[in-house]
Amino acid sequence: MSDNKHVREIKLLNRYGLHVRPAGLFAKIASRYDAEIEVEKDGIVVSGKSIMALMTLEAVSGTILKVTATGVQAVEALDDLEALVARKFDIPDEQ
Amino acid sequence: MAEVEKAAEVLESHFTMRDFVETGKERLKMELVVGGAGLDHVVLEPMTNRPGLALTGFYELFAWMRPQVIGMSERVYLESLAPDVRLARLQALFDHKAYCLVFACGMDVPPGVCEAAEKAGAVILKTPLLTREFVQHAAFVMEALRAPTTRIYGTTVEVAGIGVMLVGKAGLGKSETALGLIKHGNAIVADDLTCLRKDVTTNQLYASASPRTRNYMEIRGIGIINVAQVFGVTAICSEKRLDLVISLIHMDTAKGAELDRIGETVKTRRILGVDVPEIEIPVSVGRDLVNLVETAAQHHKLRSAGYDVVSELDSRLKGL
């Protein structure tokens, strides 16, 4: 297990939070990288590569997610995910 | 496997009167007469008490830490008392730390009791249920509330009648295997994230899906599907006892070489303090995971019933 572990707090800015499409995009981006991604909300930790798991977090707009990446591409993954959330998942009606 | 262990932390298991009232409202047909601050009181013991003796003025070993149920016999006794004594005896329960009174059998709350409860910060509930019905159902509601729970990154399927949870790294084919198992007539319990609750009386784990995503699955390349719609309701199972964990591992990891080729040693995985049998199945191109999981489940079923294939074959080889 690699020790390259990074943690970042990311705030959801889009209107409806982590519902199906945002969760799908999040998992898609997370899966691109050689790193384990974990997303935590209220002490519940799920895999950032699983759409189903992300949706169960019930993360609404304004929620701060603690995202932990472990592995070779941990930093790149976090950069990409942070940018995705900041762009409000590029979903037009949620800007 | 770090993600699995990390997720396997016990969540809060103590519950308050508010949790009890909200969760049990329907089943226990409870009406909240006095709530307020008392709703934040923690239910210290998850069972009910009949305060008959305490109502007579005997407070030794009074189980104040449980909700108090006033049933028919308490009612008849209270009615035999003068009104001022009756109120004083009920009030005395609050003085001895009682934080909840439930009036069963649809009886009315005697005058003055609500005010006393408000003053003491206690909860008053009413139910049309018979006392024995209430006591029985309340036990179930409280047991469910206090049950330790956790969530694990895994897909759970009912295979050949037993609950099997598939765990392993993302992309190894847990959901795809589940899909194949469904096609073979098995039922899915939870995809990707399994909620587990421990039944503390039997020391067994029960698996279910998060209510938010129940019946849905994500299959890479296809997207999200509604299992009940695509395959019919027989393809889903709302809750199942967890009997076996199947851990999918890469064939090329060093672990592959250390696998028990006979299958004699049964590893276990500790979840919420329960040891669940676990087997590891290496994944590689050309291995039919659906078939392997089904066979593993049936093999496990036989073994749990006492069948020991290793000794059987051993006896034959030794010519016994």
CATH superfamily descriptor of chain A: HPr-like
Low-pLDDT runs of 5+ residues of chain B are: 1-13
Please report the distance between the alpha carbons of the first and last residues of chain B. 43 Å
Classified by CATH, the class of chain A is Alpha Beta
| CATH superfamily grouping of the largest domain in chain B | P-loop containing nucleotide triphosphate hydrolases
Whole-number tally of structural domains of chain B: 2
- What is the level-2 CATH architecture name of chain A? 2-Layer Sandwich
What is the helix content of chain A?
A: 25-40%
Biggest sheet of chain B: strands, sense, closure? 9 strands, mixed
In sequence order, what are the helices and strands of chain A, one letter per element?
EHEEHEH
Biggest interface found: A-B, 20 and 19 residues
User: What about the largest sheet of chain A?
Assistant: 4 strands, antiparallel
Coarse shape of chain B: elongated
What does this structure look like?
The complex is a heterodimer of chains A (95) and B (320). With 95 residues, chain A is of the alpha+beta class. Chain A has one domain: Histidine-containing Protein, Chain: A (2-Layer Sandwich), CATH 3.30.1340.10. Helices cover 32% and strands 25% of the residues of chain A. Chain A has three helices and four strands, in the order E-H-E-E-H-E-H. Chain A has a four-stranded antiparallel sheet with strand order 1-4-2-3, with helices on one face. The longest helix of chain A is centred in the last third of the chain and has 13 residues, at 74-86. Chain A is globular. The termini of chain A are far apart. The model of chain A has no long low-confidence stretch (mean pLDDT 91). Chain B is of the alpha/beta class. Chain B has two domains: 17-146, Udp-n-acetylmuramoylalanyl-d-glutamate--2,6- Diaminopimelate Ligase, Chain: A, domain 1 (3-Layer(aba) Sandwich); 149-317, Rossmann fold. Helix content of chain B is 33%, strand content 25%. Chain B has eleven helices and 15 strands. Chain B has helices at 2-7, 17-28, 52-55, 72-79, 83-95, 113-120, 131-146, 174-183, 227-231, 289-304, 309-317; strands at residues 31-34, 68-70, 100-103, 123-126, 149-152, 154-159, 162-167, 187-190, 194-199, 204-208, 216-219, 223-226, 239-250, 267-271, 274-283. In chain B, the strands form three sheets. In chain B, strands 5, 6, 7, 8, 9, 10, 13, 14 and 15 form a nine-stranded mixed sheet that branches. A four-stranded mixed sheet of chain B has the order 1-4-3-2. A two-stranded antiparallel ribbon of chain B has the order 11-12. Chain B is elongated. Mean pLDDT of chain B is 89; it is low at 1-13. At the A-B interface, helix 1, strand 3 and helix 2 of A face helix 1 and strand 11 of B.
